[in-house]
DNA sequence: AATGCGGGGGT
DNA sequence: ACCCCAGCATT
């Protein structure tokens, strides 16, 4: 059945006007004070929405304030050095967001005179701007009645309207978009969309929702049946694969430490790290030989001084941290260099390797 | 349609 | 442990 027909069926006997009014009134009185709600500046809304992808509000706030201070306008961000942008993103995760954002801002400056497009097609073509972010910018910054369906919205609507589709599937997001097109307030789409997300964040939470405080409890089908914690339905993802490494803390005669820039694609792209030896490819006894082949340096390797476990969304690094000093050879490795302790903190490091910084002054 | 892509907080 | 979070790009 087509989504529009399903929506028509689902909202039968549902008081849409009452729902809109209750939601928007609740949002206007109960919304949190957040830095990106100071005004409707599309650039600020854009930055906030990118940072908020898969990331909690409390985590984003300090990053947002710092980022806007460093890069207050599209022009400032477009001109900035990529490493500087990554440094401002350091610790926030999903670093391709930062790289895509800068790429998109450059396009806005060059093709649209620095004005964030209010045209859905133009906006949606920008790097890093997907269906959710597009709708969020259009509704919040430009007051256009476009759906902005994120995890909150799917959870709230699945409960209110008792929708049992698997929200892990792409097709289900489109069903909810069709639903929002039908339900959204044409006079205040911004408060409607933000109200849905705010409700999901403050009241209609995943584990133990505060239904007694909910402004639309009266209309919630899941609550009336006592199945609010059974929804939404979401298929579980498989668990992470463990990858073992030896991570080398290599110092030269001057006490400088060897670090390297990761490739510009893939995991932690263009971030910095200490050299890692994958124990899936290299035997622990052959680390010294392997390192000479890869880096052109001979080492005297010490005893392991630390064990670092780092969990990603799709894999787990288990790193043995091993100190070493250079005994000979010539550094022959792209994007690798010895740096002093001052320089090292100016480079963008993923959290996994920040855990190793503490050994800088042994 | 499925997978890769970070990191932190809640339960 | 597991789940989730104001998701997107790539295949």
Automatic annotation (TrEMBL):
Reactions catalysed according to its record: Hydrolyzes free adenine bases from 7,8-dihydro-8-oxoguanine:adenine mismatched double-stranded DNA, leaving an apurinic site
Coiled coil: none
Domain spans labelled HhH-GPD: 51-202
Cofactor(s) of this protein: [4Fe-4S] cluster
Domain of life: Bacteria
Keywords, in A-Z order: 4Fe-4S, DNA damage, DNA repair, Glycosidase, Hydrolase, Iron, Iron-sulfur, Metal-binding
Signal peptide location: none
Record keyword DNA repair present: yes
Entry-linked InterPro entries: A/G_AdeGlyc_MutY, DNA_glycosylase, Endonuclease3_FeS-loop_motif, HhH-GPD_domain, HhH_base_excis_C, HhH_motif, MIG/MutY, MutY_C
E.C. number(s) listed in UniProt: 3.2.2.31
Entry keyword DNA damage: yes
Co-factor binding comment: Binds 1 [4Fe-4S] cluster.
Top EC class of this enzyme: hydrolase
Function according to Swiss-Prot or TrEMBL: Adenine glycosylase active on G-A mispairs.
Family to which the UniProt record says this protein belongs: Belongs to the Nth/MutY family.
Protein name (database record): Adenine DNA glycosylase
Source organism of the structure: Halobacillus salinarum
Encoding gene per record: mutY
